[in-house]
Amino acid sequence: MTDDPTPEPGAELNQALEPVFEDIEEGLLSQGFVLRRSAEIRPLLENFGLKDWESFAASWSRLGLDRYMADGGRYRRRRYATYSMRPGHLVRKRHQPHYQSRDYNLLNGGIERWFRPMEDAMAAHPAMIAILRAFGTLAHDLTDKSERPENWHVEVHQFRIEAQPDQSGQPTPEGMHRDGVDWVMVLMVARQNVQSGVTTIHNAQREEVGSFTLENPLDAAIVDDHRVYHGVTAVEPIDPAKPAYRDVLVVTLRHE
C-alpha cells in the first residue's frame, strides 16, 4: 500500500463537519468514551473517502473460525490486519500474530494467535482506508504533541459473533476489559436476528458510567483505553430457526 496522499490529519475535513468532529473529540476528552450513530459517522467517513460500503460489509461472510477460544467456544469468526500510520502515510504490515498479555486478556492472552489475514482487497478497500484516516486524525488531534508517536501501530479485527439456540455468542468472552492500547474504535457492520449485545463502559474503579447498543451499520463507539474499561453482553437469536450474528470492525491504535 502506498503513502496516503492526505498531507495532514484533518486537512480535507469539510467545514460543515468540523463541529461534529470537534464534538467527538470533546466527548473523548471529557469522559473517555463516545457513542455516535451512523447519521453522524457516515458523512464523516465519506469525507475521508468512504465508498462501496456494501461490498466491504459483505466480506464478513468470508471470515475464518477463531480456534484460540480458551472457553472452547466456536461462536467467533475473524480476520486480522496490521498497519503503520502517520499523517500522510499508511502502510499495511507483513501478516503477524495478535498478542495480548494475560494482564489484559485473562481468557485468551499470553500466546501468539495467528488469525486469517484480512483479504487484500478489503485491507485496501476505500471503506477501510477512510475509517483508518478518520480514526488516525482523531488520535493525532487528541494526543499531546510531546507524546505523539512517529508512527501509530494499527490493528484491525473483523469479528462475527454467532448465536446458536443452544449457545449464546460472547462478543467479549474475557468480560470487562482494556485492550492494552491507546485508542479503540468499534464500528457496527451488521446485526442479523440477534438480541442484546449491550456495550457497557466502566471507569478506573470499574463502576459503570455508560451503557448502549450498537444497532445500525456505522454506529460507532470510541474509547480511551487508558481511562475506561469496556465489555459487551452476549447475543442470543431472536428466531432460533434462522442464522443469528453480530458483525463489527474493531480498530486499535497504540504507539509503535
Description:
This protein has 256 residues and is of the alpha+beta class. Helix content is 20%, strand content 32%. It has 5 helices and 15 strands. The protein has helices at 18-31, 38-47, 53-58, 120-123, 126-142, and strands at 33-36, 64-65, 76-86, 89-92, 98-99, 112-113, 152-162, 183-192, 194-196, 198-202, 208-213, 220-224, 229-232, 235-237, 245-255. The strands form 4 sheets. Strands 1, 2, 3, 4, 7, 8, 12 and 15 form an 8-stranded antiparallel β-sheet that branches. A 3-stranded antiparallel β-sheet has the order 11-10-13, with no helix packed on it. The protein has a two-stranded antiparallel sheet with strand order 5-6. A hairpin with a 2-residue loop joins strand 3 (76-86) and strand 4. Helix 2 packs across helix 5. It is globular and about 50 Å long.
- What is the C-alpha radius of gyration, as a whole number of Å? 17 Å
Any low-confidence stretches, pLDDT <50, length ≥5?
Answer: 1-11
Number of helices: 5
Shape descriptor:
globular
* H and E order: HEHHEEEEEHHEEEEEEEEE
Largest sheet: 8 strands, antiparallel
Total number of β-strand segments? 15
Q: Percent helix among the residues?
A: 10-25%
Structural class: alpha+beta
Distance between the termini: 18 Å
**Beta fraction:** 25-35%
User: What average pLDDT do the residues reach?
Assistant: 89
